[in-house]
C-alpha cells in the first residue's frame, strides 16, 4: 500500500469516528419520565412506528396470540389498570398487551412505543399481582426508552467500527467494546424497569412484594440453565430481589410522607 493512500485511510477513518462521537453528544437528552440522561437518536413517533411494524412478526415467532379471549381480556385489564394509575398515562406511547400462545418459553418483553408481550408459559405461573409486576416491568422498559437507547448505542458502535476498519484492522476490538457496553446497559435497564414496576404496582393497589415472588419463579424456571449475571443481559434474580426490596422500601416510605 502506498504511503499516501495509507494516510488518506487514516484520515477518513478518524473523520468517521469523530462524526460518531459528535453525533452521540448531540443525541443526549433527558428522559422526562425517569429523569435519566440518555443517548437517543429517534423521536417517540418513530418508536411507536417501529413497535407497530414489528409486533405482528414478533407474535408469530411465539406461535401467535393465545386463542382465549377471556384470558387476553384479563391481561388487557391488568395492563390498562397499571397504565391508568401511573405516569404511563401521561406518555404518548400506545400501550397494547398481548398474551402469546407459546406454552414452553417463559418470557415477557416490550417493543418500543408500547406493545407488551407475555407468553402463556409465564402467564400460567402467575397470580394477578405477579402478572401486574411483570407487565409493570415491561411498561417500565417502554417509558425508559430502553429499546431506543440500545438502537442508538448499536448504531454508534457500528459507525465507530466502520471508522476503525477504514483506518486500521481494529474493527473487531471496537465491536467488542460496543457489545460489552450494550450488555451493561441491558442489566441497568432491567433494574430500572424493576423499580418502575414496583412503583406501578403500588400505584395500582397491588402488593409490590409479589414482584419478589416473580423473581423466585424465574429463578426456579431457569433451573440448571441459570446464567451468572456477568454472562447475561439480565441481572441474577438474587441481585434483582435485593434491588426490588430497596425499591419497595423507598416508594412505600415516599407515600407515607
**Count of strand segments:** 5
The Cα radius of gyration reads 21 Å
Oligomer: single chain
Strand percentage, roughly? 5-15%
Shape: globular
- The chain-level mean pLDDT equals 78
- Structural class computed from helices and strand pairing: mainly alpha
Task: Describe this structure as you would to a colleague.
Keywords: Hydrolase, Metal-binding, Metalloprotease, Protease, Zinc. Its cofactor is Zn(2+). Belongs to the peptidase M48 family. Residues 72-246 form the Peptidase M48 domain. InterPro entries: Mito/Outer_Membr_Metalloprot (IPR051156), Peptidase_M48 (IPR001915). The protein is mainly α and 257 residues long. The chain has one domain (8-256). The chain contains nine helices and five strands, in the order αββααβββαααααα. It has helices at 3-26, 44-61, 69-84, 120-123, 128-143, 146-167, 171-203, 210-222, 237-256, and strands at residues 28-30, 37-39, 96-100, 108-110, 115-119. Strands 3-5-4 form a three-stranded mixed beta sheet, with helices on both faces. α5 crosses α8 and α8 runs antiparallel to α9 (237-256). The protein starts with a helix and ends with a helix. 34% of the residues are buried. Mean pLDDT is 78; it is low at 11-21, 156-185 and 227-231.
